[in-house]
Amino acid sequence: MNRRQTDKQQQLLDELARLTELPRPVLGQQLALPNQAIATDHQHPWVQLSYAIHGVLTVETATASYLAPPSLAVWIPPGVVHSVRCSADTEIRSLYLAPEVLPDRSVCQVLEIRPLLRELIVAFSEFPVEYDEAGPEGRLVGVLLDELAAANSCELILPWPRDVRLQPLCRYLGQNPDCQQPLSYFSAQLGVSDKTLMRDFRKHTGMSFRQWRQRSRLLAALPLLEQNMSVTEVALACGYDSLSAFIAAFRQLLGYTPGNYRQRY
User: Which domain CATH number covers 257?
Assistant: First the structure.
């Protein structure tokens, strides 16, 4: 980050530190702090629903990376150290929620944001910070919370290995989705057998090396699609030699093709 960006991030952290109590059980007014991306590691004593109506948000924690296009949002429980990144043109409509409002969601996860829930969040962002809890605004918040409680979770999560030996490898693959080096190349770099690397990868991420790499590539594709690159260009940039293979993998993870994704948003 440059000096201006660093100063802006520090200003946001200072504002967050001053927010010791939520003025209402849910906070998410369009110009309020929840709708600013804080790329520096931080935590707070309430839930954050990190969501954007346009663009892709990335939430990083010590254990995983979570991506959310406009049909999804990231649920961040109280006390979880995290950072939030997005492109400059992303329109954020995140929420802060008191922990007791929806106590059953206790882990970080990516949630599906159906059209009704999206419109409720957008409408809520126009409310004053201290909305009337006893009037129509309070009733809309009640419906919003009901929809959040019923939201399904999905798999746009990239787990980070607990083993420090694997972390540089995962960072490299995440930063270079077009890398074509086979597993044997990385096992040689680490001085272990292919079998050992495969076993350690599954042990520390819950996924095979191949599954992790494919998930990493698909998550890297989302911001590129937002930049209006062609589907073919995105497939090549993310390490796919076959356009059909990229489309099939994308559909399997998200439920629709890259072209459908672009039409939706």
Answer: 1.10.10.60
